[in-house]
TrEMBL record:
A Pfam family annotated for this UniProt entry: An_peroxidase
Entry-linked Gene3D superfamilies: Haem peroxidase domain superfamily, animal type
GO biological process terms on file: response to oxidative stress
Name the UniProt record assigns to this protein: Peroxidase
Source organism of this protein record: Manduca sexta (Tobacco hawkmoth)
Molecular function GO terms recorded: heme binding; metal ion binding; peroxidase activity
Any Gene Ontology CC annotation: extracellular region
Compartment list: Secreted
Keywords: Glycoprotein, Heme, Iron, Metal-binding, Oxidoreductase, Peroxidase, Secreted, Signal
Binding site for heme b: 359
Entry superkingdom: Eukaryota
Length: 604
């Protein structure tokens, strides 16, 4: 089938030719095999929704919880009184403090997993655009280039007033309109480069055609390269090896996932977990062919991940009861069928945006530990961006794996780690303030004013007009800080509001972040025909198998595939404590694969 990615409708050959002439058909057009309602989920996300087969597929548009706010020509909105907004960096300096605080509750594993789990449903492709393609936004020619949206540094900047750095390069978000897939007189919509289903696409489909290159076509496995006894994702064949030959290249073979550290860590883990599961299935079912093992291993791997995501990770952020009440998860562990074919599976702009709030939780110094969990040193996390290959050498993955459950996460508060605030791109840029970019992005995404999101999140039952209307959700000094930089309450921007909101023991993340995440998760679950808890999806689990999947945890995963992990705390997203102390891996529940035994193999 041939579909227009933007409209999600079939495309005829004339349309395809038009895009081909402009060399953009790989973005504007999707090709996929006709749908078969009984087949396994597809790695490219196509045919999940049988009536709208491109929904949730890679290269599809995002949706908006609230309508866009732009001024003329889709430039950022103006303040209520008609002015340009203050510089984003100025607002960041005024509203967020730089500091190295630590969480009393969470381990760094949580920040990395959050980032990885975002990368499964949304993409950070814009980074490459301003790092590789359009690097001149701070030079004179950038001033007149419509693709440029640099962040200028205020005169009296506390870090940069003498550093000579006056501007951080940044580009306008890539959209269907800027790419040429959709008319420029329509609201700019971002292109999501990954499947919006929770299906570990960062492993199974991180680039077009990657899965064919990454499968070993033997025993249902993914290709690996073994370095010092550890196995690493690879597209290695006889002629290309990634890790061994190319240890210093920035773009180590394009066919392994290469992203920020959290993505690199967890895609390596889930890559290994796939093979761990495949090996177990092969032992049990010697008569299965490669394809059968691959499909089952992938399905169990995805289920393991969904179980960790929805029953372990998100409850810590949103509260288990809230998630049950919002019909995101079930309460009794049984099958459940939340699927509704009328729910659109595209990802909300606001979801990808609200998750950026987690930047302030990232401790950008990772403590490294040896196999006995003895402290070694600390490493700058940002130095590992786009350097997946580094994990393979000098025991780096081993030491980090032990570090992510040993070390507390950054504080869930109003501070941001200095590296995130000033060296966010590590060695790839002289200086970069990720939080300034976060704030500025909201303007170019055309996000509605913060107050409108408060209306939305309170189901329009609370009025949000004056600054003081926020007192139920912010401390007086935070309201004062907002007043200091915004003239009118309607000017408050979404990220600024989220930074200012109360965080407490019962709400570790700001209420607006929680609201936006919940609304999206509800839809993510309801729109996924292949949701693992459904009794009636294609190749559904048996009741026994589902009960096994319920035992999946992060701790169990690290015991299964982590380098020399033999003791770990059962709740591995949480800090080690009196109620969550390290135990032997033998005591961590894990999936018993014998429930996948195929008796027909006995006939052989
Ligand atoms: C040291 C760790 C991290 C680094 C170096 C990092 C870096 C970045 C950078 C450079 C961007 C692009 C900014 C832009 O172009 O506007 C970005 C975007 C983003 N990051 Fe992070 N990040 C880190 C941790 C996290 C964590 C823990 C999360 C948790 C959810 C996260 C979620 C996101 C999201 C959702 C985006 C937006 C992507 C988009 O809409 O294009 N990041 N990050
Ligand atoms: Ca996905």
């Amino acid at each position: 089938e041939t579909y227009n990615t933007y409209y999600g409708t079939p495309a005829d050959s004339k349309e395809v030719a038009k895009f081909q002439a402009k060399n953009i058909s790989h973005i504007c057009i999707s090709n996929f095999k006709p749908c078969d309602e009984n087949e396994w989920s597809r790695v490219d996300g196509s045919c999940n929704n049988l009536e709208n087969p491109t929904h949730g597929m890679y290269h599809t548009p995002m949706w908006r919880m609230l309508p866009a706010y732009y001024s003329a020509d889709y430039e950022p909105r103006k303040t209520k009184s008609g002015k340009d907004f203050p510089l984003a960096r100025y607002l960041r300096l005024m509203l967020m403090k730089v500091g190295d605080s630590i969480s009393e509750v969470f381990a760094t594993s949580l920040s990395y997993f959050a980032e990885f789990a975002f990368g499964d449903v949304g993409s950070v492709h814009d980074i490459r655009l301003y790092l590789r393609t359009i690097t001149h936004c701070c030079k004179p020619e950038g001033l007149t280039d419509k693709r440029c949206t640099p962040n200028f540094i205020p005169e009296n900047d506390n870090v940069h007033r003498f550093s000579g750095i006056k501007c951080h390069n940044l580009t306008r978000p890539l959209s269907f309109q800027s790419t040429g897939c959709a008319p420029t007189n329509t609201v700019p919509e971002r292109i999501n480069f990954v499947t919006t289903f929770f299906d570990i696409s960062n492993v199974y489909y991180h680039a077009a055609g990657s899965i064919e290159q990454n499968r070993a076509y033997e025993g249902g496995r993914l290709k690996v390269e073994v370095v010092n006894g550890g196995s690493f994702p690879s597209d290695a064949n006889e002629t290309t090896t990634c890790f061994l030959k190319d240890a210093v290249a920035t773009d180590c073979a394009r066919n392994v996932p290469n992203g920020l550290l959290g993505t690199n860590l967890f895609s390596t883990y889930f890559w290994r977990l796939h093979n761990y599961i495949a090996d177990a299935l092969v032992l049990l079912n010697p008569c299965w062919d490669d394809e059968t093992v691959f499909n089952n291993a992938k399905d169990i791997n995805i289920a393991w991940y969904k179980q960790v995501l929805m029953y372990e990770f998100y409850p810590l952020m949103l509260g288990r009861e809230n998630m049950i009440n919002n019909n995101i998860i079930g309460c009794d562990g049984d099958f459940r069928d939340p699927y509704d074919k009328n729910v659109d599976s595209n990802l909300a702009m606001e979801f990808a945006y609200a998750l950026r709030w987690f930047h302030s939780t990232q401790d950008a110094r990772q403590e490294m530990y040896d196999k006995n969990d003895k402290f070694i040193n600390t490493q700058a996390v940002v130095n590992y961006s786009l350097r997946v290959q580094d994990l393979a050498f000098h025991d780096t993955l081993l030491q980090m794996t032990h570090g992510i459950y040993m070390q507390p996460a950054g504080g869930f508060d109003d501070t941001v780690h200095p590296d995130i605030a000033d060296s966010g791109l590590g060695r790839l840029a002289k200086a970069f303030d990720i939080l300034t970019a976060d704030l500025a992005r909201g303007r170019y995404f055309g996000l509605a004013p913060y107050m409108k999101y408060r209306d939305y999140c309170s189901d329009y039952t609370i009025s949000h007009e004056k600054f003081e209307d926020l007192s139920y959700i912010m401390k007086p000094n935070k309201i004062d800080e907002l007043k200091r930089v915004y003239e009118n309450p309607e000017d408050i921007e979404l990220m600024a509001g989220m930074w200012a909101e109360d965080i407490g023991e019962n709400n570790p993340i700001p209420p607006t972040v929680a609201c936006i995440l919940s609304k999206q998760l509800q839809r993510s679950v309801a729109s996924d025909r292949h949701w693992y808890e459904r009794p009636n999806r294609p190749h559904a689990f048996t009741a026994d198998q589902l009960q096994e999947v319920r035992k999946a945890t992060l701790a169990g995963m690290l015991c299964a595939i982590g380098d020399e992990v033999s003791m770990i705390q059962p709740q591995a997203f949480l800090r080690i404590s009196e109620s969550n102390y390290k135990v032997s891996c033998d005591e961590i529940p894990t999936i018993d694969f014998t429930y996948w035994k195929d008796d027909s193999c006995d006939a052989y």
